[in-house]
Amino acid sequence: TNSTAAAPGSFGGFPVRPNLAHLDARALPKDLPERLQERIEEAKRELASPFVGVTTNGAPLPGLFSLTSTGVSTQPIVDAARAFLASVGDAQRAAVRRAIDSSDWRAWLNPEMYLLRHGLLLESLDTAGREAALEVVRASLSRSGFDTVRNLMRLNELLKELTGNVEGLGEWLYYLTIFGEPSATEPWGWQLDGHHININCLVLGDQIVLTPTMLGAEPVYGDRAPYLGIREFDAELHSGLQLMHALSPAQRDDAVLFPSIQSKDLPPDRYDYANGRQKAHALRDNVVIPYEGTRASAFDTSQRGALMEVIESHLRMVRPGHDAIRLEEIRHHLDDTHFAWMGGYGADDVFYYKVHSPVLLIEFDMHKGIFLSNDEPQRFHIHVVIRTPNGNDYGKDLLRQHYAATPHP
């Protein structure tokens, strides 16, 4: 809809794709293309299905997560959310609020168009309102994690300038939703949803769950003012390569599922246009993903350290204190952690990798151009998905235990 010639622009030697449809990120178009109508119907079916979580065989492993005091206060997050809700008007407050058990938790989607969006659009707020909204995110993440969120928002503005797509792209085209009542004791949370940023944060007492999280950028760095100096996903990229080079030849052979990630070199079930090689993307809350690759139980001390560097590069989003708790949970299952790879592992190669354990799933992928015209993956378009398998995405397993121990109406 509203197809226009793309504005002049290029990145990395690739021009913007010509005649891209500029789909609205602010409202659902009246006349949706058939493929998007089908996407919405598919989403409705997925959201109507009971939540199970990411598993290896369809059945979540029990006993992996527990209600416990972390000793790390979440009061700053509660205070920021309360201050934000107090700062907006009645209509905006109504738009941003959802019940704690709302199905809108699961209705996030990476593409720029509106489709499943809900909550309050940051663009609709004044400067003070945006700052109050961002303070909720800032209080919930590490400094590095918050800087990444803001950088990805700014890179979405750069993509708007490259493409001329003012309908679907921009720094402030993101929706914030508050689920439940911000509380120091009762469960509540928030979601930030938009193009290349989908973060879900469940807060329960002094515990937090920060998955599903999907982050991405096209491009991943700024090549012109005022975006010079912005650069994301370097740590995630290089730590993956370092782990591959730390493995023995036999371990690398086990890890590499396919030596190339070009679409012509992969079977249809390992690649799709929108999501590349990732299996745990939006609307895949109940996806079955078997373990693949090489298992960390056979890693030596140095290799285990390299694996933890990969994991820590992705968990740098988590706020101080809670990051140590999450890492300890992951270390407890390190022997059951699997590392898989697709693509080359040379200095300039493009690739996908996966870290998968009972309590963690990370998928890192380099993509073809969506807005830019590269038909095969490049290092300047990256997606990352992080999940908590076996039923604790959105903190669902903790919520289940909480309600079992403390009955609610």
Distance between the termini: 46 Å
Q: Average pLDDT, to the nearest integer?
A: 96
Largest sheet: 13 strands, mixed
Uncertain runs are 1-7
Assess the beta-strand content as a share of residues: 15-25%
Number of helices: 10
The count of strands amounts to 15
Structural class: alpha+beta
Order of helices and strands, N to C? EEHHHEEHHEEEEEHHEEHHEEEEH
Describe the overall structure:
By secondary structure, the protein is of the alpha+beta class. The protein is built from ten helices and 15 strands. The chain has helices at residues 34-48, 75-87, 90-96, 127-140, 143-163, 234-246, 249-255, 301-315, 322-331, 396-405, and strands spanning 10-11, 14-15, 97-98, 120-121, 174-179, 188-194, 197-204, 207-209, 213-217, 256-258, 294-295, 338-343, 351-357, 360-366, 382-387. The strands form two sheets. Strands 3, 4, 5, 6, 7, 8, 9, 10, 11, 12, 13, 14 and 15 form a 13-stranded mixed beta sheet that branches. Strand 5 (174-179) and strand 6 (188-194) form a beta hairpin. Helix 2 packs antiparallel against helix 4 (127-140) and helix 6 packs antiparallel against helix 8. The longest helix has 21 residues, at 143-163. Residues 1-7 have low confidence and may be disordered.
Q: What keyword list fits this structure?
A:
disordered N terminus, 10 helices, single chain, globular, 409 residues, alpha+beta, two-stranded antiparallel sheet, 13-stranded mixed beta sheet
